[in-house]
Amino acid sequence: MNWNMVWIQQERYKDLLREAERERLVRLALAARPEKAARRNGLLLGVMGWLGCLLVCWGEWLQRHSNPCTCCHSDPDLKAPQVQVL
Prior knowledge:
There is one protein chain. The protein is built from three helices and no strands. By secondary structure, the protein is mainly α. The protein has one domain. The longest helix is centred in the middle third of the chain and has 32 residues, at 34-65. The model has no long low-confidence stretch (mean pLDDT 79).
């Protein structure tokens, strides 16, 4: 093992230590204000749920009010190919 490899391993170890310290500080900062983080996450989940319901309702409305094209549905020979699921 040459000195370059030793130096590279030492630098990698130092990088890992810095990363671990940064993650520890982030966890500590988030733990200091859990009510704000929980409120923000709850708000985000509420908005995402509302948006999901809105998209489902819109999709149902589109399916109810869609007009199928006459070229594919009037002539039985021009149907779209069926996809087989294996």
